[in-house]
Amino acid sequence: MLKKDNQTNEFKEIVLNNIPLIDVRAPIEYEKGGFLNSTNIPILNNEERHMIGICYKEKGNEEATKLGYKLVSGKIREDRINSWINFIETHKNTMIYCFRGGSRSRIAQEWISEALNKDILRLKGGYKAFRNYLIENLSIQNQNYKPIILTGYTGSGKTKILKNIDNSIDLEGIANHRGSSFGSHVSPQPTQINFENNLAYDLIKKQSKNFEYLIFEDEGKNIGKNFIPQEFYDFFHSGKKILVSSTIEERVENTLVEYVIDSQKEYINYYGIENGLAEWFNYIYSSMDRLKKKLGGDRFKKVLDELNFAYKTQLNSGKIDYHKYWIELFLKEYYDPMYSYTLQKDRNNKTIIFEGNSNEVLEYLKNLK
Prior knowledge:
369 residues, alpha/beta, Oxidized Rhodanese, domain 1, Rossmann fold, 2 domains, 17 helices, 58% helix, P-loop_NTPase, tRNA 2-selenouridine(34) synthase MnmH, Rhodanese-like_dom_sf, selenium
């Protein structure tokens, strides 16, 4: 006989083994926050959920349940069961959940078990319990490693170094943002809930490897629209620092590759060849315009003139080298003065434990396991 109410709260196993999950909540709920290895195949669509919610408030749980069975019946019920089964057949060990592990996931679990003639596990406590588990893993008491902060002037190649070591947490990658005034990608950032969930996933996986150190980039509290939870931010910023030293030529080249060459490819792939470059330019221009007051009128005009000239030259000749001029001006006039103060403070406080070029820093970090 089938056990139709098999439940699990082995959340760490789900994270470490990337166990596929079916989220049966309505799309409007899933859009606010889900899990990396989850797929939304709802038992109720948004309208059905809304109707049942009104019924629950006016007539209680029993009538709301009856309405749910009435709305999801016949062909609709059959189609939704088939959607779950199609997913399960191509994703072994699939588990299922709703918001609190209540009626929706229990009913879906029963229907799936009857159709497949075998059990499927559902998450005990549902989304809420798993989410609480992930948030707990961002608390200080659950950080079983020593944080190290990778710092350096803008464009020194810190993110590239992070991607080449196993014991790193790429906060910008998790936030889908480059962490600067021009840091947005064409694809949207995760919701704040998903940013926190994804960060917790990465931390759990890295800590399972028993690294003595985890390496972070020197980030502000906000990465685009996402923000790092205060307690976790304070913890990793308590770590010692490693300084990446780069020449201005190296920094300009790194910035050119990341913010012009790679960024333009993103825009062209998304908007097409005809509109991609124009959309990229509009984004850079509007981002720079927001910094007008901080740059000051004369410096702003100078940088803007160089940007306009570089863009027009690229359109006419295909050459991108002229972008180096506005990049260098912007690094020297905007970013460097801000970072110089922080760097001097770090030197005074003796928080920098190593300093070197990219290759030297990478070699040093690879020995910090």
